[in-house]
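Recall that a protein's primary structure is simply its ordered list of amino acids. Everything else, from secondary elements to tertiary packing, is in principle encoded there. The following example makes that idea concrete.
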Amino acid sequence: MVAAIHIGDGEMKKAIYVVAGILLLAGCTTHIHDQDDTITAPKTPFDKFTQVIIRPLTSTASENDFPDKAVANVQKDLDKCMADAFAGTTYNPAAPDTEKPTVLIEPAIVDGKKVSTAQRIFFGALAGSSAVLMQVKFTDANSNEIIAQPVFYAKAAAMSGAWTFGAQDNAMLSRLSDNACNYVRQYRH
């Protein structure tokens, strides 16, 4: 004998709302979190260097999670603000002088999720948050000593991304570069 359970229309609607709410909250989560404990003062202040070499930004995040276009945008912002942060030094010379005190900068996206504008328009907050971690290795090129290796974090919340149709997701990329450049400015003296 099988017992039948009758669910009324009101109870069914409540169940659908609960399931929809759980799915909405699950879509807003991201597994990427800040690593502020890595942001410590460099072993050598940046004003001790008279020459700066910055390598192209690399990314270990998948193309699906963090597309090449996003990497290119971060690279563009990083080049511009690092040149400003290191004003008064020889920046990315064509032929580096091996006698000058030189800092080598190697930025890398180590983890990231960038929600595209199309995803924001079609899915809104259900597309989830955008977040990215960028590690920047600063090396004294003359001694090959790593003087700092901070990891910078930027995030765009799911709801803010949805309300701005992805503008916050794009602004997150600029904030990431700004964080790295502000680190240099802070420890320049």
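The two ends are 82 Å apart (CA to CA). The chain has a mean pLDDT of 83.
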